[in-house]
Each structure stands twice: as structure tokens, then as C-alpha cells.
Amino acid sequence: MTNLHVPRDGTTEFSINPFLPPDEYIPDGEPHVFGDRVYVYGSHDLSGMKGGMCAGDYVCYSASLENLADWRYDGVIYKRRQDPYADRMTEAGDRMGLKSYLFAPDVIEIDGTYYLYYGVALGKSGLALAVSDSPTGPFEYVGRVRYPEDAKPAGWTDDVDGIEDGDMAFAAGRPLMDARGMHMKGYPYDPALLVHDGRLFLYYGCAYCYVVELDMSDKRTVVKNPDTGTYETEIFAGNGWGMLAGLAFGRGPELQFGNGPSIREIDGRFVLAYYASGRGRFNGMYHAVASDPRGPFTLAGPLVSLGNVRYDNQVGATDRVGNIHGGMFEVDGTWYQIYHRHTKDGRQACATPLTRKADGTFEHAEYTSQGFSTDPLPAFRRWPAYMACYLTDGRGRGSTRKRGPNVAERAFLGGPDRRDAANEGIVSVVTGLAEGSVVGFKYFDFADGQDSPTTVTVELNSETAGTVDVRVDDPTKGPLIGSIRVTPTGGRWAPFESDMRPTSGAHAIYLVFHPDGPSLGSIASIEFSPTAH
């Protein structure tokens, strides 16, 4: 099998989705601006979902605020087995990671020190804190979020499962699920942090959402709400089974809070973004606003949805759906939302610019290929196929892991360490190109068009002969601007091209696949050229 090098002409100049390297899987991304760079902290899926979601150590990527197309790998910032509970559970044989993987983290800076908060899988270890003097670590373990010494529940035992405090402050130290069922109410899940007016607030929850204040002296001891006399304040009362039904079957309660709270203070108000699911397979980032860090919060609408469900009244998904999580940041007056999408090999970090309404809330942004780019991407480049944002099967249904086109890695050379220069043959492509499958990109700008002949080229590893139709604006009704005849490639990658009708302006581009046999295989790239090759 031959090696394949996918030219990155367009991606070296412009941001796309996913905005990190395609073989890096950082879901649940929380972006924070420290100095002149933005840093993204998230969970870490290993390529191929080896071990399941969140099996890797925490790593960090950052970019200059002046160039959001160029992301730097800052290395491992915190290792999974630095956590005493995760280490104890790993030693005990937790092969599935349900008690030992590091889930979605958040980082906050206070007086030059960086505080990393995280939870360990679905176990009963509460939320943990690690610290560093650098945004890129290394972080060192401190302890658990805890009750004050004089407020521990009766019969509480310290030094449980390797945790020196034994201070699981919420949910009575129960795991999210055990033989008795699900325990979502009060469960400490997906921490998010906010400093406001010299006070530190922690948001968390799964199906239910809560906020609690932390003592600024140690950043981990909970403080009672003086208005209620309780520690935690409930923001959303949840329906856990309803959330799961919305995720799995697309018919759960409407826009149910799922998990992944992310908090920002914007122009004197508090914006809470979070994962919500609901009817029609809606899986998206939603937001709510409040005038006080503890609420009450008022629903403000979707921010972005996988497969564009409900965007511009769209019914049904036009890509894979699943959980989603991420935070916001602002550069030069523009707010961006980070989130993740699902692929065969892991969840990839994506982004979209947000548009603010007159009341300060945000419009529902479109799920596109553009990443941080606020304008359509210039068409006359070579672009990787993995940036496709529209993947449907022959019946027009959004892809699933087992049905329809999927983004997937294809290894040609090298070993497991993908950062080794010898592994350049590992590439991300789109596979599963059966009859009527659609691979779509939003958006390309053809500017004023070209007077000279124009060609469109696709690079395929084709299993059979067939045709690739190129349409603009709509995969079924849009104008046909090119039709590419493909022959079998015998396990090799090869370019196929066709003349293309001159096109101007910005358009969505859809490739519609018509194999003579079961599948046209995989596509690695698409290229538009203003002159014939």
C-alpha cells in the first residue's frame, strides 16, 4: 500500500474545522485567553477510541490571538495517573476507564497561578484540583473539592480509595451509576470556574446543573450560600432518563440540560453554555443568561448544533450527532464557540464565530467547515476532505458510526506515535462512499469566477468505477457544475478531475457519489483550479 501525503495548501493559511491536527482528538474544549494567546483545555480521546472516550492524559494547544489558524502543541500538562484515585483504580484493573479516566476539565488563572479542576470518570471521587505556575503546566495534584472540616457528613471517613481528604463534597460520595441505578442528582460532573468580584464559583452537573462558591483561600473548600443556608444552588432541575432518551433516540424532553456547563461573564451578565439534547436528534450547545452568578438563569437559545439540527428551521441532522461540549472566548469584539464533532476515531475540536443579538445573547450559529474563519474560504486551493461538515447516506440521513460517510484515519506507514515525523502517511479521509452518499463543504468563495477553463479534482482510493457529481447550494436540487468519472485504483490513491462550469460567489459544495459497485471507497481531498491541469 502506498503512502499518501495530503497537501495542506488551504489549511496553512486559513482556519477550518477541525481546527487542531486531524489526528488529535480534544473534545470538551475550554478556551481561555492568557496574555496574547488562547489556550484550549479538554478531555483527550486516543486515536481509534482506544480504551473508550477520555483515555488519554490532558494535553494543551494554544494559538496567537492574531492567527487562529496556527495552533501549537504545548504538550502533556497533567497525566492521568497523577490523580491518586485514578491511579488506585487503574492498579485495581479498571480496563474500561469508568473509574479512572480524566473527564472534561477547566482552568482558571488567579494572581499568576493556574488552577486545573477536573473529575475522574463516573466514579465516586468528586472533583479534583491541580495547580501550576504556567498555563501549559506541568500541573501538580492538590486535593479534592471538599466540605469544611466542621461540616463533613456524619460518619465520614478520610483516606478513601487513595484520596487524602475523602471529601467528596456532593452526591454523598456515590458514583454516577452502580447496581442500584443512576445517581445524577447532585453528581459532581464537568467543572467550570468563574471569578467574579473577588469570589470563586464552581459550576457542575449531569442532567442537573449546580453552582457552589469556593473559599478563595484554598480554592477548594465549599462555602454556604448565605441566602439559602445550603452549599450548592440548583440552576436546572434535570430529567436524566429524558436526557439519555434525547441523545439515543431523538425524542427526549425538549432541550434538556445534559452536562458540560461553561460559564463566562460578558458585559455584566453571566452566560452559561451547556450541552442540551431534544427531539429531532437535536444535540447542541445551548445558553442561558443571568444577572447574578447563582442565577436565576433564563434560557437564551442554541449556540450551535451538530448536523445543523434546527438551524434555519432545518429538520433532521446532516452529519453525525452525539454529545457536545465547549466554551467561548472573545478576540477583537468577536466571540467564538468551541465544541466537538464525532468521527470514527474520536471527537475533534471545532469552532464557530458567534453573532450577538441586540439583547446581548447569541444567535444560533451554523455548523460549517470554516472553523474560526468569519468569511467563506477561498475556493482555489486544495482542501482536505475531512473538513466536510455535511455527511449523509443515500437516503439523505445524517451519518452514524455504522452508516453513511464517516471521517476516519487511514494508516499507511509508521507506528502508534503520530507526532513522529516518520508517520506522515497517517491521514484523515472520508470513507463509506456508497450510492447517493453526500460529502459537503460550507462554504467556498469563487470570487468573481474565472474566464479561463476551470477544473475540479478529487483524490480517491476507489474500490470500483463510478461517478462523482459536484453540485452547489443543494445536494439534490443544486446546479450540477461538474461530473468526475472514476476508475478503480487498486488500493492506491489517485487524482480524478473534470472540467467545471465557471462559478462565482460563495457556495456550499456537495459531492454526490454514484459507484458502479458497492462503494467508491474513500476521498482524501478536493481541489479547484482556475486553469486546466
Spell out the key features of this protein.
mainly beta; 533 residues; 5-stranded antiparallel β-sheet; 34 strands; 2 domains; 6-stranded mixed β-sheet; Tachylectin-2, Chain A; disordered N terminus; single chain; Jelly Rolls
Q: Can you characterise this structure?
A:
The chain has 2 helices and 34 strands. With 533 residues, the protein is mainly beta. It has 2 domains: 30-367, Glycosyl hydrolase domain, family 43 (Tachylectin-2, Chain A, 5 Propeller), CATH 2.115.10.20; 378-529, Jelly Rolls. The chain is elongated and about 75 Å long.
Indicate the topology.
Layout: E1 30-34, E2 37-41, E3 58-64, E4 71-78, H1 84-91, E5 106-110, E6 113-119, E7 127-132, E8 140-144, E9 177-178, E10 181-182, E11 192-196, E12 199-204, E13 209-214, E14 222-223, E15 233-236, H2 240-249, E16 256-266, E17 269-278, E18 282-290, E19 298-305, E20 328-331, E21 334-343, E22 346-354, E23 377-378, E24 382-384, E25 390-392, E26 406-410, E27 427-431, E28 438-445, E29 454-461, E30 466-472, E31 480-486, E32 494-500, E33 506-515, E34 522-529
Parallel strand pairs: 23-28
Antiparallel strand pairs: 1-2, 2-3, 3-4, 5-6, 6-7, 7-8, 9-10, 11-12, 12-13, 13-14, 13-15, 16-17, 17-18, 18-19, 20-21, 21-22, 24-34, 25-28, 26-27, 28-33, 29-32, 29-34, 30-31, 30-33
